[in-house]
TrEMBL record:
This is Accessory factor UbiK family protein. The keyword Coiled coil applies. It comes from the Bacteria. It holds the Pfam family BMFP. Residues 53-80 form a coiled coil.
Length: 86
């Protein structure tokens, strides 16, 4: 009878192992489907990706800096011109 009990436990352990593997496979499929749907939803909303946002923000910062430099040059030229006309 001990052999029969061991066989039942072995079968039960094998069944539990198979069930755990199947559950993990289902979990991965659900995660993949969720990520695909979330990405599809975000794409339909025209949400910008973080990398794109950072790139545009950096471009805007450079443009602001350049504008400040150009503004200072214009003011210097205007001052020079008004000094010559006096």
């Amino acid at each position: 009878m001990a052999t029969g009990t061991n066989r039942i436990f072995d079968d039960f352990a094998r069944l539990m192992t198979d069930a755990a593997g199947a559950a993990q496979g289902v979990r991965k499929e659900v995660e993949t489907a969720f990520h695909a749907q979330a990405e599809k939803f975000l794409n339909s909303m025209d949400v910008v990706k973080r990398e794109e946002f950072e790139a545009v923000r950096e471009m805007a910062a450079r443009a602001r800096d350049e504008n400040e430099v150009l503004k200072a040059r214009i003011e210097a030229l205007e001052a020079k011109l008004s000094g010559q006309q006096s």
